[in-house]
Design brief:
The complex is a heterotrimer.
Chain A: H1 6-34, E1 37-39, E2 43-45, H2 51-56, H3 59-91, H4 98-106, H5 113-124, H6 129-137, H7 150-174, H8 178-186, H9 191-218, H10 222-229, H11 236-246, H12 250-287
Antiparallel strand pairs in A: 1-2
Chain B: H1 2-27, H2 43-50, H3 52-85, H4 91-103, H5 106-120, H6 126-150, H7 155-162, H8 167-196, H9 199-204, H10 212-222, H11 226-254
Helix pairs in contact in B: 1-11, 2-11, 3-6, 3-8, 3-10, 4-6, 6-8, 7-8
Chain C: E1 7-18, E2 21-32, E3 36-40, H1 47-55, E4 62-67, E5 70-71, E6 82-85, H2 97-107, H3 112-125, H4 141-153, E7 159-163, H5 171-188, E8 191-196, H6 199-205, E9 208-213, E10 216-221, H7 223-228, H8 233-238, E11 243-252, E12 258-262, E13 265-269, E14 281-286, E15 291-294, E16 302-311, E17 315-322, E18 327-333, E19 348-353, E20 359-362
Helix pairs in contact in C: 2-3, 2-4, 3-4
Classes of the chains: A mainly alpha, B mainly alpha, C alpha+beta.
């Protein structure tokens, strides 16, 4: 409906204004800042320079980037492995319990995720409950050192981000038509084939959405690395945070942020390309 | 096979709630040491009650979440309606920007907004937090409402206009009531994201309006403060009360659902009998 | 007990309930090889459930299902040599037409070359050869329907089950597809089990019709049997329009014919081996096309008034109200001898019928649906 009316104009103007002011402009500022030089008083000095980017090439920072990415990918994979069967199982339950169960997944969010990370710390500490249980059951002789390891950070990330994987997967499973599964069985496919050729392709959008919603925040969650990883296992988020809030080196923080954004954008582009490839391959098959 | 499924579900819920259960249980621990149980005590709740700063921070967080959710739902719903119904220039760019917000790591969002606020001269406090929270809640609200709009029959609005309603009236009296569940879901989503947020809040917060994450951050990094346990338990109980209350309201409104007819429903995944 | 050579499916004592509500009462049904049999009935009669029981998507609460003598009651759908065309078509949205049709063969792990050639063949048979690369959402309703059929028949099942496949199509397309389906069925020689609530469809396509109501089988027979010799009022009323007179036997004549009182007149009725005796209460049934309308001067039949007339293109339908208040529906063909034939509302008329075309049924107390 193409109408010139005040309602439409007002809404469109509002949203445009908001996006320009709070999305476009800030990001522009960051890009600009990354090419400037640090100033002790005003945060940045208007002096163009590439030194921030140059510093990023330092193996220390490159190492942090790669480690971060590795941890984030692992987190995503674990969330997917846990979340996919979970979403499937919930969607098969009677309709009256489903909203309740999904709410129970969301409920922990209402205690702040920092609090939840802190709770993880209690569980994983050397004299914490997990170790007490393991010792008590005789599974191990000495307490396991779980805190301040990379595993702890990943566990914390998974714990905080799992619901973000479950929700889009659940949405997609809810849309999966029952008669498609029936017809697949009717045509002679055993369960594995139905899963591989019907369920999986049709839930793929949910899988990808979930992976993105986990992967992208994961690299920036510095507080998880702080609380569970100590000073040793840092995420890119920690670097950026330190530079902005502690070291006050904004250009460097901005540069790191830009590089992070580019890395994420590359990932998104790769996903977009792969989605197109999948579609083309199936059409080829038909015309063969 | 069914027990496997139910067992798996139970296991995952167990894992999700185990840390929280630990928090709750040890909030009643008489000893400060969270690793050893030394009897029941409400000491930490008393301490929490006296810890004005912590309580204030919690209330501030709730206030922020409520206002951010409400405003972002308002703006987001209108945006979703506009995107769905109207054609206007730059739709793609708008969609793109919403996508950018949703897909940016929190930290990128955080620093960019901080830079903005410093540049413009917005005082870091409630206002900056509110603006930041609305911004990151928006795309989620838009997506949720937009999805519901896609299934909405446009002929209903045409009928309203046929009967004499203006565009505005048609939207308010026909469209909004029908998409209300999605709007509500969007609100809940925004509320959740805001309460849960740590990264963005830490960057754009100021001394005048202290919120929970910052308050707790130093506490949990260094030592163990059981007041935090008590606070978490209180928040959890409040959430459960809200959940039960809303379920009660919903079932009262809905009334009896019709039994499915004999002709087998061609619907979504069937419940297992 | 020896299984008759031509029986391909036997349902014995099959029943099914959902949520403590009985949908199908224990029933038996034999389906013959190569026939086109239709399950006909109103919504909620259990016909779709019965179909799903045969397909394996539901387990019967009691009874057995034998396919060519083999007990398949416990077999899951993917192991039954039975295929279904779903009401919603259930085409895989993420696959092309080709892949949809090939799906069943690939599930059987057929070699690639065989799949290619058989899919091509079947697509040509349903006249969709050029659309192999398209996706379901790029096809019209009729085309989607044919893909659904192709996908099912390519597996050469013993039985093809069709769940109201034509209900989503418009009138013209439906007629076309009815002919198509008959042609395919004859060409392939597969037994078709068809479900519909449209009696016209059922009568025009089937070798036999199973009329169902509320979980019971009311009558099984050829379309002709069911139309001309319905076994109760429900069947009579469901498969077509029907006029019902209540009558009482007043005499039984020597040659077996009956005499009854209808609307105060003495009418002679044909003999029926049903064995009616004097004093029995009857229904006398007549189809609209059996009635004859005569000018008011004539003496035969009953006197009445035209209260409605409907021009139907081929026929003229009239509602006549008799003096008793009873209303009848008459259907007459246009013919060359009287091109202007029509009735005015309120016109007086006499109604009679072709003798020996009446159906006599014992009086029922319950009203038909």
């Amino acid at each position: 409906m193409k109408l010139r009316n005040p309602f439409r104009t007002a809404v469109v103007a509002l949203i445009w204004a908001w996006m320009l002011l709070f999305v476009f402009l800030p990001n522009l500022l960051v890009i600009v800042a990354s090419f400037l030089v640090r100033d002790d008083v005003q945060f940045v000095r208007l002096e163009a320079s590439l030194q921030s980017y140059a510093r990023l090439l330092d193996p220390v920072y490159a190492g942090v980037f790669l480690d971060s990415l590795g941890m984030a990918l692992t987190t995503t994979l674990v969330c997917l492995l846990i979340g996919y069967p979970f979403a499937y199982a919930v969607s098969r339950l009677p309709a009256r319990v489903k909203p309740l169960l999904i709410f129970l997944v969301i409920l922990p969010f209402w205690t702040n995720s920092l609090v939840r990370t802190y709770a993880m710390k209690l569980l994983l500490a050397t004299n914490g409950l997990t170790n007490q249980a393991l010792l008590g059951l005789g599974v191990v002789d000495a307490p396991l050192r779980m805190l301040y390891t990379e595993g702890a950070v990943i566990a914390g990330l998974v714990y905080v981000l799992l619901p973000f994987m479950i929700l889009p997967l659940y949405a997609v499973f809810e849309q999966l038509r029952a008669d498609l599964l029936e017809v697949s069985s009717d045509l002679g496919a055993e369960r594995w084939r139905t899963f591989r050729y019907v369920v999986l392709p049709l839930t793929m959008p949910g899988v990808l959405a979930g992976c993105l919603l986990v992967l992208i925040p994961a690299v920036g969650m510095f507080y998880v690395a702080d609380v569970l990883g100590g000073a040793k296992h840092l995420l890119i988020g920690n670097v950026i945070k330190n530079q902005f809030l502690d070291a006050r080196d904004w250009p460097f923080g901005a540069a790191a942020s830009i590089v992070l954004t580019l890395a994420m954008a590359l990932l998104l582009y790769a996903y977009y390309l792969s989605a197109r490839m999948v579609r083309r391959r199936s059409a080829d098959d038909a015309l063969a | 096979m069914r027990w496997l499924k139910h067992g798996y579900l139970g296991l995952v819920y167990l894992l999700l709630y185990l840390p929280i259960a630990v928090l709750v249980v040890f909030s009643f621990n008489a000893s400060r040491n969270p690793y050893r149980w030394q009897g029941l005590s409400l000491e930490w709740y008393a301490r929490l009650w006296d810890n004005d700063a912590l309580i204030q921070a919690a209330l501030n967080s709730l206030l922020l979440a409520t206002s951010a959710a409400t405003l972002s739902t308002l703006i987001g719903t209108l945006t979703a309606i506009a995107l769905h119904r109207y054609r206007f220039r730059g739709k793609r760019i708008l969609n793109g920007m919403l996508f950018v917000v949703m897909m940016s790591p929190d930290i990128v969002l955080a620093i960019s907004l901080l830079a903005l606020f410093i540049l413009i001269g917005v005082q870091l406090g409630y206002v900056s937090l509110l603006l930041a929270h609305i911004t990151f809640c928006l795309p989620f609200v838009v997506i949720t409402v937009y999805a519901r709009l896609s299934g909405f029959n446009p002929q209903m609005l045409e009928a309203a206009r046929d009967l004499g309603a203006t565009d505005f009236r048609a939207v308010v009296t026909v469209l909004l009531p029908i998409i209300f569940p999605a709007v509500l879901a969007g609100w809940l989503l925004g509320f959740t994201l805001s309460l849960d947020d740590v990264v963005v809040s830490m960057f754009v917060t100021g001394p005048t309006f202290e919120i929970l994450p910052l308050r707790i951050y130093s506490m949990v990094r260094l030592g163990i403060k059981p007041e935090v346990n008590a606070l978490a338990t209180v928040l959890l109980i409040l959430s459960l009360v809200a959940l039960i209350g809303s379920q009660y309201l919903l079932t009262r409104k809905r009334g009896k659902k019709h039994e499915n007819s004999e002709e087998h429903p061609v619907g979504h995944l069937p419940a297992e009998r | 007990m020896a299984i008759p050579e031509q029986t391909v499916l036997q349902l014995q004592g099959i029943s099914k309930s959902f949520n403590d509500k009985r949908i199908v009462f224990p029933l038996d049904l034999d389906i013959r090889h190569g026939e086109f049999i239709t399950l006909l009935g109103p919504s909620g009669c259990g016909k779709t459930t019965l179909l799903r029981l045969i397909g394996g998507f539901e387990r019967p609460d009691s009874g057995t299902i034998l396919l060519a003598g083999r007990d398949i009651t416990r077999l899951p759908p993917n192991q039954r040599p039975v295929n279904t065309v779903f009401q919603s078509y259930a085409l895989f949205p993420h696959m092309s037409v080709f892949d949809n049709v090939a799906y069943g063969l690939r599930a059987e792990r057929r070699p690639r070359a065989e799949v290619q050639s058989r899919v091509r063949e079947v697509l040509d048979m349903v006249q969709l050869g050029e659309l192999a690369g398209r996706r379901p959402d790029q096809l019209s309703g009729g085309q989607q329907q044919r893909v659904a059929i192709a996908r099912a028949v390519i597996k050469k099942p013993r039985l093809l089950l069709l769940d109201e496949p034509l209900s989503a199509l418009d009138y013209k397309l439906r007629k076309q597809m009815q002919i198509e389906l008959k042609r395919i069925q004859r060409e392939l020689g597969i037994t078709f089990v068809f479900v519909t609530h449209d009696q016209e469809e059922a009568l025009s396509m089937s070798d036999r019709v199973v009329v169902m109501r509320a979980g019971h089988v009311e009558q099984i027979g050829t379309p002709r049997d069911v139309y001309e010799n319905p076994c109760n009022l429900f069947v009579a009323g469901f498969v077509g329009e029907i006029n019902v007179f209540d009558a009482e036997v007043t005499e039984v004549l020597g040659d077996g014919r009956l005499v009854g009182q209808i609307e105060g007149r003495r009418i002679t009725l044909p003999a029926r081996n049903g064995g009616f005796a004097v004093g029995d209460a009857l229904h006398v049934l007549l189809r609209p096309e059996d009635l004859r309308l005569l000018p008011p001067e004539r003496a035969e039949g009953f006197s009445g008034e035209v209260v409605e007339r409907n021009y139907k293109g081929m026929t003229l339908e009239s509602v006549i109200r008799l003096e008793s208040g009873h209303q009848l529906l008459a259907s007459e063909f246009f013919d060359e001898s009287d091109p202007d034939f029509d009735y005015r509302l309120g016109e007086r008329i006499r109604v009679t019928w072709v003798p020996n075309w009446e159906v006599l049924l014992p009086r029922e107390t319950a009203q038909p649906v």
